[in-house]
Design a protein that fits this description.
There is one protein chain. The protein is mainly β and 270 residues long. The protein has one domain: Lipocalin (Beta Barrel). Strands 1-3-4-8-9-10-11-12-13-14 form a ten-stranded antiparallel barrel. Strands 6-7 form a two-stranded antiparallel ribbon. A hairpin with a 5-residue loop joins strand 10 and strand 11.
Length: 270
């Protein structure tokens, strides 16, 4: 009687549970990216020019904060295949009096010229991947993706604080272009408990096709704490470095971008 419906194999066993980040289909992360940045850009016109450090020469801020959004969807029935989307935007504006001679897009700006300058970038990352290996406490995945950078920048002289015989070009020199860079990537997640998870992702690529070239590094180690079934907190360090170059009518030149710093986020999963 006592043994009816009783499985002896369950004696002493403890039901195993996986971290929800290993099992849930949808994961949404919203965070604050406190970044330090470096922007070096070269714009060639009919006259050659030297690369310009926007922080050193034009006084653009080296530090800033921006919102970072990431969404992951395990779309296959077995939840082996997934896609993710990441977005952040950086805005920079500064007014500076030049301390050195500057050439930019067929214009010459002397020492003493007062310039307004801006450099904005919107970065959208789309990734498509598959789980390579998984277990009760870990997951390794890999795939391909595309980083698309929408870059907008301008320089405009507004005054000259020097000898009055200098004729200053007051034209607003704008450059807008879209720079796509494909990449391959890998991500590893280890969750020793149902509360804590540690992860790292790496994405990289380098290509040169005709009059376009691009190189990219995107690295993020992270730790997260799940304080309830559907919500958690995360702390990561985001490192993003890209170099793009073109020789087209829309833009002739190159840009080196570096954004790095801590990212504090809240995630929702279901």
């Amino acid at each position: 009687m006592l043994s009816q419906g009783f499985d002896i194999d369950t004696i002493g066993s403890i039901p195993s549970e996986k971290h929800v980040l290993l099992t849930d289909r949808f994961i949404m992360e919203v965070g604050l990216f406190s970044n330090s940045k470096s922007v070096v850009m070269n714009v060639d016109g009919t006259m050659p020019s030297n690369p310009i450090d926007f922080g050193e020469t034009l006084g653009l801020g080296r530090h800033g904060n921006t919102v970072d959004i990431n969404f992951t969807w395990r779309f296959s029935k077995e939840m082996k295949w997934f896609t993710s989307l990441n977005y952040f935007a950086i805005r920079n504006f500064q007014t500076v009096v030049l301390q050195e001679y500057l050439k930019w897009n067929n214009s010459l700006y002397p020492v003493g010229a007062k310039l307004n300058s801006a450099f904005d970038v919107d970065l959208l990352r789309l990734f498509f991947g598959r789980i390579i290996s998984s277990g009760e406490k870990h997951e390794l995945s890999g795939g391909i993706g595309l980083h698309t950078m929408n870059i907008r920048t301008y320089l405009q002289a507004v005054a000259y604080l020097g000898p009055s015989d200098i004729e200053l070009d007051l034209t607003k020199k704008e450059i807008n272009f879209l720079a796509p860079v494909p990449n391959i990537g890998f991500r590893y997640l280890y969750a020793p408990t149902t509360r804590w998870a540690f992860s790292a992702h790496l994405e990289w690529f380098s290509l040169q096709v005709g009059d376009y070239k691009g190189t990219l590094w995107d690295v993020t180690p992270a730790v997260s704490y799940q304080f309830s079934r559907n919500f958690g907190l995360g702390l990561s360090y985001k490192y993003f470095k890209a170099n793009v170059g073109m020789n087209r009518d829309v833009w002739k030149g190159s840009a080196d971008l570096l954004y790095q710093g801590p990212l504090i986020s809240v995630n929702g999963n279901f």
